[in-house]
Protein 1
Amino acid sequence: MNYIEALNFMTKKQSLGIMPGLSRIIELLNDMGNPQDKLSIIHVAGTNGKGTVAGTIALALMRAGYKVGLFTSPWVEDYREQIQINSKPIGKTDFTDYVEKYRDNPCSEFEFLTAIMYKYFADSGVDFAVVECGLGGEEDATNVERKNLSVITSVSVDHTNFLGNTLEEIALAKSGIIKENCTCVLYPNADTQAIFEEQCKRKNAALIKVEDRCDFNDNNLLTAKKAIEAIGVEANVTPVRLPARQEYIGGVLLDGGHNFSAAQGLAERLNDEVAVIGMMKDKDVDGYLSLVASRCRSIIAVTPDNPRALPASELAELAKRYCSDVKVVENPLEAIRLARENGLSLVCGSFFLARQVRKELSAYKK
């Protein structure tokens, strides 16, 4: 098996979708010798900001001289970027070897990728593994360790078809990463704080509450700082820059955020934008557009390359409620090229869309 074959094997597993339960990955990890039990894990869950907080923690630990594994998703530029050690993605040879050796399993793509991550980090002897939850917490494939430092970022309504229909149900699902006799660092979640307090009490876990700075970015940074302090490390903690998280490329703002809370953070930076927008149909599309589309002068609605994508025509009809100039161009790359002629300034609504167009935007920058 070569790298392209290994990558194709993994991506074909996407057809299995999201599969609830931990039995499959637990069986696979048993076959691997339970590498997760050999790691010092900082486990990060939340609705918004968890990738940024995880990346900020990892960067600070690296600067302090530690060997740090970082697991985040989704990928934007390279599939292997989801599994990194000291900012270097897992090598093609290592990735291929793990896929080939353990390919005989019934896991979903994310479950298999998570197992490979734990095995790679353990085999490489990282000092810390900073692990971002993929979805939720309690039944997320990453939630297989016996102890950790749990970090909870901003919690809001998202993935209701898997996590619950209310904010309280979603918070309870995310609190599932809190382990017995461990420590939890909690972002200022005023509406759900009691749920995390109760979970910590039940698990005899220490709870560190982050002071509310009334700013999303400041709260994320302080959450990362509290996490570093909780493991007894002195480090310089500064915000990490991640692709497609309010990222400027050649004057174009690229953001993969896709829920109402993400829209709130993005909307503060918008004014009379020329935008290309694509979203998944299982998101609160109208809620997102009510904040973002209303701050756009013109919009081109597109259909990202994903089975869950909302058709551009349906997105356009919703966007017209908030913006008078809305066009439909199915192909995102064609939309980018067309929007350039009119002063493109914003691409948003989905990480899958960001993945498709980021190279095009980078080329435009040059």
Protein 2
Amino acid sequence: MTNAPIPTPHNSAGAGDFAKTVLMPGDPLRAKYIADTYLEHPKQVTGVRNMLGYTGAYKGKPISVMGSGMGIPSIGIYSYELFHFYDVDNIIRIGSAGGLQDGLQLMDVVIAMGACTNSNYAAQYHLPGTFAPTADYGLMSRAIEAAKEQGTHVVVGNVLSSDVFYNADSSANDRWKAMGVLAVEMEAAALYMNAAKAGKHALCLLTISDHIYSKEELSAEQRQVGFGKMMEIALELA
């Protein structure tokens, strides 16, 4: 465990303000929606840069929810601090993704068993090879069981955590698709690497918000509040 003064420059919460399990949507307004909609007695514990974080309970179990922002650098900071400075054990990213495979439909729930990436985030570890960021098996298996009990079909497999949203290489998605990658998002790989390095646990659940090839997409409002099945699966992991 890394010792550091808290609050941090990015988080105004004090020691003990976060539960052991934290849900992390990218959008801080989605964090507020989850707290207001699902949590018992939610309390805002941080709001630095409007990156809202709340702690409450779900079915009597303590749980927190906090925004991560967009991209690997952002979730890299927030998840690192939660793991190392706030004694959080489990982080479940709940976010949106762009579908790559033909069988995926809007609102399908994807569980990221692995996270490919075009980021150099792993370079900081000076590993003698390529690291494969993967989900925590315990969290993943529990999420699959929760989805079954809920009656929600989930697709489990590899995703891409991309550093690039507007890619100058127009053929990049075709090559990832050819390798069976299900969908593209922007955060899971860093979360999985931070968890591995800290000896903690992480999982990424995604809802398909648009499809790279069919060009279908959800509205901004649907992205913010329309991911109930994914949220309820994640909440069961408290």
